[in-house]
Amino acid sequence: MKKILVILILLNFYSCSSEYEKRENKVYYRFWSFGQGGWNEKIVENADLQSFSEIKTDDNLYGRDKTNVYYENIVIPGADPKTFKHIKDGYAVDKNRAYYYNDSISNSSPKEFKIIDGYFSQNWNNVFYTNKSLNVCSVKDFTFVYKDEESFLGRWSTDGCFYYFNNYKVPSKDYKNIELFKGSDGMAKDTEFIYNKDQKYILPHERTVFVKEKASFVKDTIDIKTFTVENYICQDKFGRIN
Fold first, then answer.
1. What is the rounded CA–CA span in Å between residue 131 and residue 58?
2. I need a surface site. Which of 42, 47, 54, 101 has the fewest CB within 10 A?
């Protein structure tokens, strides 16, 4: 019985972890923080007291008045209070665009907008990572490369034309020959270059290797054919690369 009571108390704390309150002719955003020892609050600056209302969600992070929409105590730039609608987690839409928490999603529209997961979403003509647009060549062909991968550090995806690590597009023109390295924080290669997210990977001038074919020591060399990444460690036939 005691365990059940403790669980109910914790659920009550989490269910009311934040809220808006009107008092002293001001609007306050109140939130519970164990780290800060209980309830804390911030003034919602310039909120219209008469028209302000809380937008009911699981965590009560949004409010609106006749002029603005608020995330906690911050105005969401450009959000339309009349048509703003919270969907789930940090996603919302209004008549003009989609939103990720307190940011508008770049180049988005509410048309056919839907959530893919906690970081990815899409509408009728694009795919988005948090508030960033991927500008994919095909929404229909967008898919995750490793379907079982749910890392908060990042996921590989493709639209059939390019590969992406989160919002970073691998700038390779050799799509059919790209090899991705799972669990590498965005390393990939094709037959010509190594890539780190959306940049060609340039090895710092710190390594000297012996190249048998040249019978000499050479600086700044990566052997692309044998290049691999395991447990975030890059290496090729010459050894580890820092």
1. 21
2. 42
